[in-house]
Amino acid sequence: MTIKGSCLCQSVxxxxxxxxxxxxxxxxxxxxxxxxxxxxGTYLAVKQAKxxxxxxxxxxxxxxxxxxxxxxxxxxxxxxxxAFDGEDIRCxxxxxxxxxxxxxxxxxIYVSDKAPWFEITDNLPQHELRxxxxxxxxxxSSD
Length: 143
What we know:
With about 140 residues, this protein is mostly beta strands. It has one domain (about 1-140): Metal Binding Protein, Guanine Nucleotide Exchange Factor, Chain A (Beta Complex), CATH 2.170.150. It is about 5% helix and about 45% strand. The protein is built from 1 helix and 10 strands; from the N terminus they run βββαβββββββ. Strands 6-7-8-9-4-3-10 form a 7-stranded mixed beta sheet. β8 and β9 form a beta hairpin. The longest helix has 7 residues, at about 30-35. The radius of gyration is 14 Å and the shape is globular.
């Protein structure tokens, strides 16, 4: 399966091919809320990705949001694209993918940190921190 994605202005494009994925999650940690600007961030976590920038790699800016975790975004339009753990892709923002990738969110993680003004109304499993089948995105003890 090949997944393609891009930023809002279409200056940056990427591709994931022949990758093994963890389930898609809705992360409610403060960092994901702030980078997405909404109640949670939705991510496609990648176990072993064959990731490559198709164009605009020179426009990708990285920000270290927590120790050893870098969030990347387009320096032109500001679209969040991925979170890196060192130089390895950890998760792709689902909103930056192009078309239907055939995957849907399977759980909510870090619900202990969810925005007080937001209520989860779906029936997806909820995990106080992270679920056992996703890579950690936020460590509340590091705050």
